[in-house]
């Protein structure tokens, strides 16, 4: 196949990486940023929880990361996105930051991508410097079917995608991937679909579109780029856990919690101090699944030394806090 003709439009593309809570956006982004031809990329990360984790993980791969954490991009902090993009452009022209050839915006797992792209394309101060790039949506190979069928946000992210990346194929059977692929195609019949696993992920060329005649899919399907719609009652809260935890007791606690309440706890993530390890341990739970721990080399500045962010329905911080004592290491 002939390679696609490069775009004649020299403005910087703003790609949006979206996907439901815990579907693998940050993992995939870290993989993409490891490619040499994505070296000149400015990354903007939007997090729903009160304390950000994703930007710390991405900063392991690139320094050029801005965190927008005061709300969800599609409804609360759209103006912040516009001003951040304008500042980045000015700073790159003044030589205050390394020049970049594209921007990737990683949204929260609950974001509607339409108002985000619309904000970028309709801001007069951005029009001369930026153009709309691709919308890439990660769909969780394990929980994606449940998310698309039960959460408007997940279906909307698929509907607007130029490319869907079905993640975590290493954790499910082929027939489950096929069933999920059919659901994706029902929501967005023309979308390009890629499959990804922890060990083999698609490349930037597979998911980002650079062809001269390419038009973003969202232009075809979105006539109302207003505020994002969010499922009723999803809330986020943070629990500080600054006392050292006993790892086996913590894993048992989290597995039991997600087994019992995985329908209402959509996402848990955080950094924990664990007995016997100097490094902060990165925690990931998505619906019913607890993922293997990762590590950061050191504690980040400016956040508590131990916290868990919950994104959930019908769950209170006090219910979690009451159940916590079992996870702590005994004092010696
Ligand atoms: N086995 C496996 N695990 C994966 C894969 N992709 C992501 N994960 C794990 O899934 C968990 C959540 O991944 P993230 O990349 O943080 O997901 P996210 O979409 O950025 O999460 P939010 O920003 O909180 O919505 C982590 O523990 C990842 O290591 C995959 O392809 N295979």
From TrEMBL:
Residues 234-328 form the CobW C-terminal domain. InterPro entries: CobW-likC_sf, CobW-like_C, CobW/HypB/UreG_nucleotide-bd, P-loop_NTPase, Zinc-reg_GTPase_activator. SUPFAM superfamilies: Hypothetical protein YjiA, C-terminal domain, P-loop containing nucleoside triphosphate hydrolases. It catalyses: GTP + H2O = GDP + phosphate + H(+). Zinc chaperone that directly transfers zinc cofactor to target proteins, thereby activating them. Zinc is transferred from the CXCC motif in the GTPase domain to the zinc binding site in target proteins in a process requiring GTP hydrolysis. Pfam families: cobW, CobW_C. Keywords: Chaperone, Hydrolase, Nucleotide-binding. Belongs to the SIMIBI class G3E GTPase family. ZNG1 subfamily. This is GTP-binding protein.
């Amino acid at each position: 196949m002939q390679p696609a003709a490069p775009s004649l439009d020299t403005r910087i593309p703003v790609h949006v990486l979206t996907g439901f809570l815990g579907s693998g956006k940050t993992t995939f982004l870290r993989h993409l940023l490891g490619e040499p031809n994505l070296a000149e990329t400015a990354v903007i990360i939007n997090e729903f929880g009160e304390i950000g984790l994703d930007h710390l993980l991405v900063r392991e791969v690139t320094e050029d990361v801005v965190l927008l954490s005061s709300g969800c991009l599609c409804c609360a902090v759209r103006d912040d996105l516009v001003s951040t993009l304008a500042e980045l452009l000015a700073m790159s022209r003044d030589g205050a930051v390394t020049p970049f050839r594209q921007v990737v915006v990683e949204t929260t797992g609950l974001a509607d991508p339409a108002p985000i792209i619309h904000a970028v394309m309709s801001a007069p101060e951005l029009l001369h410097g930026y153009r709309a790039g691709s919308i890439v949506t990660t769909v969780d190979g394990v929980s994606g079917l449940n998310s698309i069928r039960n959460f408007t946000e997940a279906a909307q992210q698929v509907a607007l995608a130029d490319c869907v990346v079905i993640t975590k194929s290493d954790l499910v059977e082929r027939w489950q991937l096929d069933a999920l692929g059919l659901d994706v195609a029902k929501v967005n019949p023309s979308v390009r679909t890629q499959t990804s696993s922890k060990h083999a992920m698609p490349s930037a060329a597979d998911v980002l579109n650079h062809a001269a005649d390419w038009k973003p899919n969202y232009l075809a399907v979105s006539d109302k780029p207003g505020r994002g719609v969010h499922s009723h009652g999803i809330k986020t809260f943070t629990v500080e856990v600054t006392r050292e935890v006993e790892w086996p007791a913590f894993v048992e606690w989290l597995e039991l919690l997600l087994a019992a309440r995985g329908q209402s706890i959509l996402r848990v993530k955080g950094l924990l101090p664990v007995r016997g390890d100097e490094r902060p341990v990165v925690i990931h739970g998505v619906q019913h699944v607890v993922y293997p721990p990762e590590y950061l080399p050191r504690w980040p500045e400016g956040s508590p030394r131990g916290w868990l962010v919950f994104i959930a329905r019908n769950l209170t911080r006090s219910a979690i806090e009451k159940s916590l004592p079992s996870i702590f290491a005994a004092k010696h």
